[in-house]
Every structure is written in C-alpha cells, then in structure tokens.
Write a sequence for this structure.
C-alpha cells in the first residue's frame, strides 16, 4: 500500500492484518514523519522507544490474538496522564511531573491495541484558543504558508489537531471544555468530536473545569472518528460523572443518510460581524442537508448570548478550585527562591509556575467564588446555565441535530489576539453553549477561506445521541469531499 499514513484507519488495520505492512514499519514511518514536523512544535514528548517495543509485540502476535486497534499509532494531548511519562498540561508547574498512573481513556485505547507515539502541546491547563500559552512555546498550524507569519492551530488542543492535519498519527486525543477540540479541528481542517459529557472518563485527565471537560478524538474523517470514539468511552467507577448509558453502535446507521431528519438552525448564531465566508459555509451546509432530504427548521436558543459570560465565570471558578492543588507541596514545581513562611512559598511557587492566562483565570475564579460575590456571579451563572440547557432541551423536542459554524473565523496569526483576552474568548462563541449543556458536538471541515485556510462546520446532537451526530456528519462529509491538504511540500 502506498502512503499508508494517509489511509483510513480501517484500511491500515487491514493492511497490517494482510501483512502488507508490519506494525514496526508503520510506527517507524510515523516516527520519521513526526520528526520532520518539529518546526511546528506540535509535540511535547516523543515516546518512540516504547512505541517500537509495542510495535514488535504487536507484530509477534498470532492473528487470533490481535486487538481491534492493534498497532495503531496515536498522539495524545499532554493533559492525559500516561504512566511513567511526563505529563505537564504544558505548564511549568508540572514541567517534570511523571504520571504514576494511566488515564482511563488512554488505558482503554491501549487495551484495544493502540500505541501512543507522542504527547502533544496545548494551551497551559487547556486554557486558551490559540495554543499560545504552552510552556514549550507557540504551536504552529501546519497550514502555515509563510513562516514569518505563522498561523495558530487553535486551542487548546492545538498540537493534537495540528498533528492530524499533517498526518502524523492515525488519530489523536484532545479535550474539550468550551471548544478545545472543535475549534482547533476547524482551524486545522480535520474532524474533532466532543462526546456527551460523561461518555469518556475524566480519570487521569488533568482537570480544568470538571463539569465541562470531556475527552474526544481528532481524525481525518468521520468514520475514523467513530472508530476512535468507540474505544474511548466507558463507564468508569473511578469517575462518578461517567454515564452508564450504553453507547449506541456508531457504525450501524452511520451511512444511512439524513433523509427525514430535522436540522435546527439557531437564529442567535447568526451574529453580527461574522465574515460572509462563514455565513456562506453555513448556508452550504444547510443546502447539502436539504438536498439529502433533511428538513431545515429555524430554531431559537434565546439564552445563547449569555453563554460566553456564563462559561467565563463557571470555567475559571472550577479551575481555581482544581488548580489549588499545585502548591509546591504535593507534587510539581516548587520555587527555588527563599521564603520566610508557607504562604510565601505558595506565592512564589504559583507565581513562578503558572503562566499569565492561567493566573488570569485563577484570579477571576477565586473572585467569583469569594463570599459576597458568590451569589452575584457564580450562583447566577449556574442559573443561567440551567436556562441554556432548557433552550437546547426545548429545541431537541422538535429537531434531531443543530447545524452551526464551528468558529467565527479561520486560523488567525499567532500573537494576533494574545494581548486581547476578550477577542480570544469570542472565538468560543459557537462552541461554548453546547459545552455548558453537556451535549455531543463535532466539527468537520467544510470549506477553505479566502485566505486558503480551512473552515469547519459544527453539528450538535442531543444528549447521548452520538450515533445520529456522526450519521449527520458523515452525510455532509460525503458531499463536501474536503480534499485540501496543508502546504507541507515533500515532508
Ligand atoms: N477556549 C476556551 C477556553 O479558553 C476553551 C478551552 C477548552 O475547551 N479547554 O477556556
């Protein structure tokens, strides 16, 4: 098979089973590829030795002992604890932290035969939309044409999205709290899926905002996404927020089309100032679905405009509680500077260990939780969150899926929004509402912008309806036939 690295996962599995390719050859090809991608700073740690060892073991297996994802090389966002490996969430405070245990999601994938080939760079503690708060430097989008003006891959899972754009792994893992899988998928021209909150265990994923964080895959196409996701979800007694609800078979109706489905178009997403190319893409999505026999229905999600401010209260509040553990005592970095007492040690450790954006979130978070402000901000935000959930509940009484753009722009230049947090936060305008409601949602490549950069379409499904979500996405994908590739030359 020529160019196996660009093949669908199921074909790679077939090629290995038919001995057209050994797992070791496959892993070595990906290693060579990843090394060539160094200039994009996608990778935080290369796990090549272990990957080759696993590949040899896979090759030595008898056919009947082969696992469903046997020998499939994957890249993992550096927020998943992987036993014995550095796991830093791209933060200096965890710079030398070696995880003593494995996250449930990566364990499930290993149990299915997948091989972790590298960990990927991200925004520090998954806070950001541009992968520009990473302790190892900015992550660069492989769609960058001019290296004097590097593009962001989006964030926070920028490394994982970028590596898929450059075909550096069979699939990769991200986490999505307010859009961190979908927005980078949009910027990098790949598929990114955030399942229903509670589908994937958060055990062993470094926490940002516990009521929002979800793991999900980046893939080249929807079918690969169905395969990756199938092996990621599980009820987990180590995470009390995982669901016991059975995952529907994601393949059963995947190719059954959208005839008769009702697709909601929320009028509140038609915001002022979004570029016409984004509106055009949205219309293109609607037309495709209509042509395929779906019914397009205008819907209203009246509390949409409150989603962003609500998110930027709840997420920092939860982050401030979650990140309190990085105190220089239990694990991670401790200031080398002199201190007089415990408090000074905390201040120095946290002051030196956390980056600017994380500090900003922690300040906001502790403020909105402090006595006197708790009712005015945090409690209020929780009430608005309930309204946002009700909006979606009402809509899903009438419709099956919601179609929107994924992000309000194409990939912007690194640094363009770094000094302007509000404009950075606005990037999440289309992804945050479904996060607050815990709904499954995905981004798939829809078109190229006038600047020659990918643009994504977002589909949102009802709780636990990942099957329908992927079915809708598959139908659109077949029509759009997005075949554009980043300008990597002969890399
Ligand atoms: N961009 C959003 C934020 O900065 C979302 C991040 C995420 O989903 N992890 O909070």
């Amino acid at each position: 098979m020529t160019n196996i690295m660009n093949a669908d996962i199921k074909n790679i599995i077939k090629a290995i089973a038919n001995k057209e390719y050994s797992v070791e050859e496959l892993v070595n090809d990906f290693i060579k590829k990843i090394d060539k991608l160094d200039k994009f700073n996608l990778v935080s740690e290369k796990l090549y030795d272990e990957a080759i060892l696993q590949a040899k073991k896979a090759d030595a297996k008898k056919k009947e002992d082969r696992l469903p994802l046997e020998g499939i090389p994957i890249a993992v966002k550096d927020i998943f604890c992987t036993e014995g490996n550095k796991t830093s969430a791209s933060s200096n405070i965890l710079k030398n932290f070696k995880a003593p245990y494995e996250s449930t999601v990566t364990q499930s994938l290993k149990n299915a035969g997948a091989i972790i080939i590298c960990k990927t760079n991200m925004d520090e503690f998954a806070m950001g939309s541009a992968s520009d708060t990473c302790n190892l430097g900015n992550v660069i989008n492989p769609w960058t044409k001019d290296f004097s003006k590097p593009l962001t891959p989006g964030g926070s899972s920028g490394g994982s999205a970028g590596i898929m754009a450059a075909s550096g792994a069979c699939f990769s893992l991200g986490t999505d709290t307010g859009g961190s899988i979908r927005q980078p998928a949009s910027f990098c021209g790949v598929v990114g899926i955030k399942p229903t909150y509670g589908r994937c265990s958060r055990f062993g994923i470094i926490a940002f905002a516990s009521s929002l964080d979800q793991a999900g895959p980046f893939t080249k196409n929807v079918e690969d996404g169905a395969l990756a996701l199938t092996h990621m979800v599980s009820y987990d007694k180590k995470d009390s927020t995982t669901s016991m609800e059975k995952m529907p078979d994601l393949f059963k109706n995947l190719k059954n089309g959208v005839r008769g489905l009702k697709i909601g178009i929320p009028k509140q997403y038609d915001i002022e100032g979004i570029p016409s190319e984004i509106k055009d893409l949205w219309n293109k999505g609607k037309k495709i679905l209509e042509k395929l026999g779906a019914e397009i229905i205008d819907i209203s999600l009246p509390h949409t405009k409150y989603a962003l401010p609500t998110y930027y209260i709840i997420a920092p509040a939860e982050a401030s509680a979650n990140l309190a553990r990085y105190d220089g005592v239990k694990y991670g970095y401790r200031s080398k500077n002199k201190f007089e007492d415990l408090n000074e040690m905390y201040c120095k450790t946290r002051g030196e260990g956390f980056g600017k954006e994380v500090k900003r979130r922690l300040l906001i978070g502790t403020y909105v939780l402090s006595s006197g402000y708790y009712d005015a901000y945090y409690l209020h935000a929780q009430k608005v969150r309930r309204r946002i959930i009700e909006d979606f509940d009402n809509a899903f009484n009438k419709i099956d899926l919601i179609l929107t753009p994924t992000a309000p722009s194409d990939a912007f230049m690194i640094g363009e929004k770094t000094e302007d947090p509000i404009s950075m936060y606005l990037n999440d305008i289309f992804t945050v509402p479904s996060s607050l409601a815990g709904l499954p949602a995905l981004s798939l490549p829809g078109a190229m912008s006038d600047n020659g950069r990918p643009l994504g379409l977002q589909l949102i499904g009802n709780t636990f309806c990942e099957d329908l979500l992927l079915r809708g996405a598959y139908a659109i994908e077949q029509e759009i036939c997005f075949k554009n590739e980043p300008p990597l030359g002969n890399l």
Summary: The two ends are 19 Å apart (CA to CA). The chain has 15 helices and eleven strands. The domain at 7-491 is CATH 3.90.1300.10 (Amidase signature (AS) enzymes).
